[in-house]
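Quick check before the chapter quiz. The format below is the same one you will see on the exam, so make sure you can read both the input and the output lines.
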Amino acid sequence: MVDKDKLIQELLKENEELKAKLQKTEEAAKRLSALYQAVVKDFEDYKLRMIKEKEQVKEEAIEKFAKAFLDVVDNFEKAIESFKYTNDINSILQGIQMTHYQVVNLLQNFGIEKIEDNHEFNPMIHEAIETVKSSDYKPNQIVKVLQHGYRYKGKVIRPAKVVVSVEEEEIT
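Here is the expected output.
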């Protein structure tokens, strides 16, 4: 026969142990919840900080480019002013060429490269604006560059606009 008092005592003891385990589990859950909330807050703060830093880097890059470009603007203004006082086309042309050289150097210093035309049409770096029949050029060869293309870190930021030769039967 089962002793009811002993069974009740065992159940009460087990109940107390379970209450103690439950209390420990609740305390651990509260600690983990607080830790989780702190991690979430830190991550949100990190994201905001990264957005601000990215914006700051962007602003600094724009400022650096603008400062360098202002020298070019100054030279253009000097050239415009000199047009008023001289009729010497050679000196005007020389001033424009020097300013063009300065612009090209500025772009190169910022990693922007002119796409060199190898006279073979490549749709990844060229945009065919026109096609012409020509016995002087092989098919798919660049006949004329209408507008130079440029790359930044290997990525085409503007394709070169070109005229491309085709075989006579290709034009419809």
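If your answer matched, good. The chain has two helices and six strands.
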